[in-house]
Amino acid sequence: ALQAGIVGLPNVGKSTLFNAVSNSAKAQASNYRFCTIDPNVGLVDVPDQRLKKLAELVVPDKIVPTQIEIVDIAGLVRGASKGEGLGNKFLGNIREVDAIIHVIRCFEDENILRDEGAINPVGDKEIIDTELQLKDLDSVEKKISKSEKQARTDPKIKAELEVLLRCKGHLEQGKSIRELDLSKEDKVAIADLFLLTDKPVLYVANVDEASMHTGNKYSEALKESVKQEKAEVIIMNNNIEAQIAEMENPEDKELFMEEYQMKEPALDRLIHSAYRLLNLYTYFTAGVQEVRAWTIQEGWKAPQAAGVIHTDFEKGFIKAEVIGYSDYIHYGSEASAREAGKLRIEGKEYIVKDGDVMHFRFNV
Ligand code: GDP
């Protein structure tokens, strides 16, 4: 599964959020598969309304959502890029994730220690950004010094070097690579560096209870400061989320959420957004035994998508029967969609669309 890593300064509510995620995953374990990978890694179901709707039509024995991994990357502090407090280890952990969930403290609480003085969401974000940027600068500079000599004789390396120099200049201005306008070819030049500030990010403004629905001056300031990045800011209260996730009885959960005027846990929104951030597609299989969501990357062809279910499906792929999601919903069943001519037979070159309802034919 793809991974999203939770980062942020100490005492901003990261582990509270992580516990909420892993507890809600455990609560689901009664219905679905769950495995603990690591104390800091939780596997969580991705809520998807389309899956629900399909299941309402098919009424299967089992509904199986797709999952993503959430990793708690604790321990980032000012100076991490210089190796302060295990800094390099944590930065290394970030390199492995596919997307970043950056938690920012937007709540006041004098009992909760804050090394950096008064609450300052924008400043906090900058501290973390700076560490990641410095680390990236290091990677970029290393590659520059390696390729400088070759660039004199090799035009391809020369072009790469130009991209690297642009990245360097950009980072030196205190900006993240994701804000830099790079073409697809440019991206190839830096792909092997897995730059930290190139990873997609979303921000969690961890606000106090009273601001859960409205946000507050801190979350507003944060929103303003990330406008340029076009990044999403999710306003939530991690303590409340952790409490909801701990409740085993669904009725207790409902009552609790009602009390706080919540329609759904904010966690659902967060996971959904993290999934979108990863640029993932979902296709479905819909049978009476199980209706299930499967994760693929944008652009994958049918055999590769089939391989997510089983490698044999990919190896022995013959063809796929495909019904578009909205056709399926419109006609209400596979049989009716087929009658209406909406079931397509697709071959090896078919590029799977988000929401496709698929059935694979394969040789064993
Ligand atoms: P981490 O160091 O970022 O992992 O932070 P923790 O999740 O351990 O949280 C640090 C402290 O802040 C804990 O005592 C939490 O209970 C508390 N905390 C977390 N979220 C909130 C919140 O939304 N409001 C308040 N008042 N306290 C919170």
Automatic annotation (TrEMBL):
<protein>
    <recommendedName>
        <fullName>Ribosome-binding ATPase YchF</fullName>
    </recommendedName>
</protein>
<dbReference type="InterPro" id="IPR004396">
    <property type="entry name" value="ATPase_YchF/OLA1"/>
</dbReference>
<feature type="binding site">
    <location>
        <begin position="11"/>
        <end position="16"/>
    </location>
    <ligand>
        <name>ATP</name>
    </ligand>
</feature>
<dbReference type="InterPro" id="IPR023192">
    <property type="entry name" value="TGS-like_dom_sf"/>
</dbReference>
<keyword id="KW-0479">Metal-binding</keyword>
<comment type="similarity">
    <text>Belongs to the TRAFAC class OBG-HflX-like GTPase superfamily. OBG GTPase family. YchF/OLA1 subfamily.</text>
</comment>
<dbReference type="InterPro" id="IPR013029">
    <property type="entry name" value="YchF_C"/>
</dbReference>
<dbReference type="InterPro" id="IPR012676">
    <property type="entry name" value="TGS-like"/>
</dbReference>
<dbReference type="InterPro" id="IPR004095">
    <property type="entry name" value="TGS"/>
</dbReference>
<dbReference type="InterPro" id="IPR006073">
    <property type="entry name" value="GTP-bd"/>
</dbReference>
<dbReference type="Pfam" id="PF01926">
    <property type="entry name" value="MMR_HSR1"/>
</dbReference>
<dbReference type="InterPro" id="IPR041706">
    <property type="entry name" value="YchF_N"/>
</dbReference>
<feature type="domain" description="TGS">
    <location>
        <begin position="279"/>
        <end position="362"/>
    </location>
</feature>
<keyword id="KW-0460">Magnesium</keyword>
<keyword id="KW-0067">ATP-binding</keyword>
<dbReference type="InterPro" id="IPR031167">
    <property type="entry name" value="G_OBG"/>
</dbReference>
<dbReference type="Pfam" id="PF06071">
    <property type="entry name" value="YchF-GTPase_C"/>
</dbReference>
<dbReference type="InterPro" id="IPR012675">
    <property type="entry name" value="Beta-grasp_dom_sf"/>
</dbReference>
<feature type="domain" description="OBG-type G">
    <location>
        <begin position="2"/>
        <end position="256"/>
    </location>
</feature>
<comment type="function">
    <text>ATPase that binds to both the 70S ribosome and the 50S ribosomal subunit in a nucleotide-independent manner.</text>
</comment>
<keyword id="KW-0547">Nucleotide-binding</keyword>
<dbReference type="InterPro" id="IPR027417">
    <property type="entry name" value="P-loop_NTPase"/>
</dbReference>
